[in-house]
Design a protein that fits this description.
Blueprint (H helix, E strand, L loop, with lengths): L1 H24 L1 H4 L3 H18 L38 E5 L11 E3 L2 E2 L4 E2 L2 E4 L5 E3 L4 E9 L4 E8 L3 E11 L6 E2 L4 E5 L9 E8 L2 E3 L5 E2 L4 E2 L3 E5 L7 H8 L3 E3 L6 H7 L4 H8 L12 E3 L2
Antiparallel strand pairs: 1-16, 2-5, 3-4, 5-12, 6-11, 7-8, 7-10, 8-9, 9-11, 9-12, 12-13, 14-15, 17-18
Helix pairs in contact: 1-3
Length: 294
């Protein structure tokens, strides 16, 4: 819709330039200098180029600009700084044109890992498998992260969501490219921090991660419902667990350390350490191992 408006504006300016040019044709009657006529011809040529300019510089449009306050950058995954508390109580998202990025077994779900949080869902694939765009939208980021995502793509969608596709072997789209739901954007891989070929797939709203399983039935390969209601209470309930993880404190095991000694040092109990780390009180500790103490 925004692209259509932009084209209309360009056409308006082209028409204006044409009318000015027509006036220049009658320069003899109104005694317009030849230099002015030449300038008007140049102006007409400029507006003609603008009309045919595919870069759309006159009015740069991006999906869901009204939601993202016209913030658009390829530098950072989350440049928005909209904490969950600042979001509306509920937002309805149109999911009707969803396409599964890859048909594969879920190998890792959204949620807490031992020392960090997993903000997406991992889908098994073979290197070179086609990875498709989940919804129609526009490519915001194409980048490489050695210690994390590897080759990855971020797409902003018309419905307000952003999706992340990571550990790719090859990217097949370009920055700022408009793409349709189901269009192949990359080939699956094993780049970055990855222990085997898979697609790491994320869904985000204003930078805040959403569990893709809330929207997608990955076993059936289809959307759960044609529209999804984002709510602070349910969609982002994991934030409490995340804050707890961020406040966590860890002890690096040294030679001779025992659970009893560590518990005494940090003013806690062996039972609490075992619960925090999901280990047995009889577990032998190894130097270099991390033990959560808070």
């Amino acid at each position: 819709m925004m692209e259509y408006i932009s084209k209309c504006l360009k056409f308006f300016f082209l028409l204006l330039g044409f009318l000015l040019f027509c006036n220049a044709i009658n320069a003899e009657k109104v005694n317009i200098p030849n230099s002015t006529t030449s300038n008007l011809k140049d102006t007409l040529n400029i507006y003609h180029q603008m009309l045919n300019d595919t870069s759309d510089d006159l009015m740069e449009n991006h999906p869901a600009d009204d939601i993202y306050n016209n913030i658009w950058t390829s530098e950072r995954l989350n440049p928005y700084h909209f904490p969950v508390d600042s979001l509306p109580d509920s937002v309805r998202i149109d999911c009707s044109n969803f396409i599964l990025p890859i048909y594969g077994k879920v190998t890792s779900k959204f949620g807490r890992r031992r020392y960090r949080y997993h903000y997406g869902i991992d889908l098994k694939l073979n290197v070179g498998d086609s990875v498709r765009c989940a919804f129609e939208g526009k490519v915001r980021i194409i980048d490489y992260e050695h210690g994390g995502y590897g080759h990855y793509v971020v797409v902003r969608h018309n419905n307000g969501l952003e999706t992340v596709y990571a550990h790719l072997s090859k990217v097949l789209v370009e920055l700022n490219q408009i793409i349709g739901a189901g269009e192949v954007i990359a080939l699956g891989g094993n780049t970055g921090r990855s222990t085997g070929p898979h697609l790491h797939f994320e869904m985000r709203y204003l930078g805040n991660a959403i569990d893709p399983d809330n929207l997608v039935d990955f076993e059936k390969g289809s959307i759960r419902q044609f529209s999804y209601l984002i709510t602070k209470k349910n969609t982002f309930k994991y934030q409490k667990d995340l804050k707890s993880l961020q406040m966590a404190r860890y002890h690096v095991v040294h030679k001779g350390d025992t659970l009893s000694l560590i518990a005494s040092r940090y003013g806690t109990t062996v039972k609490q350490l075992c619960n925090l780390n999901q280990i047995s009180s009889k577990k032998l500790l190894k130097p270099g191992q991390k033990i959560r103490v808070r």
